[in-house]
Amino acid sequence: MAMPWIYAVRIAQILFGLIVVALTAYVISTFNYWWSFSSTVDFLLFLGCWTTFVATPYLLAAPIYFPRLAHRFVIPAVEVITMIFWFAGFIAIGAELPSPAYCTWSACRALQAVTVFGSFEWVLFAVTTYFAIMDLMHHHRSGESAQKTQHNAHLGV
């Protein structure tokens, strides 16, 4: 039996989230750079934890094990929120970094890697958000047509 593609994407999202957590924790631990006290780095640490320990496990497990918690509006909402967070995070840290020629110390290189992995996370969440919204719209259309059909059937009775 083949594994659905969404599981591979979720595993990649968790893996990239763990990488972001590790790299931002390293940057925060280096107290000799101004980035150690940056709210953008703190936000990316939160975002890595949010993705790794809250959002992706919910998106992965709720439809399978807890279908009542996987409401048709909550799943796209979590996807959209996480996608927007990642977009804001990797753009913000990328705007704060100096050019690559001046980024020669390890904390700066770690933040460059965080920017790259953050952009990958954003792309992955953009793809899954698209499919979650398409699923919601398909469910909405099929729900409306089923209600109309059912309603029309009751009119004749």
Automatic annotation (TrEMBL):
Record membrane topology: Multi-pass membrane protein
Main location: membrane
Alphabetical UniProt keywords: Membrane, Transmembrane, Transmembrane helix
Subcellular location field: Membrane
Name of one Pfam family that matches: MARVEL
Keyword Transmembrane helix: yes
Segments crossing the lipid bilayer: 7-31, 43-66, 73-93, 113-133
GO annotations of cellular component type: membrane
Cited InterPro entries: Marvel (IPR008253)
Domain MARVEL: 7-131
Name this protein carries in UniProt: MARVEL domain-containing protein
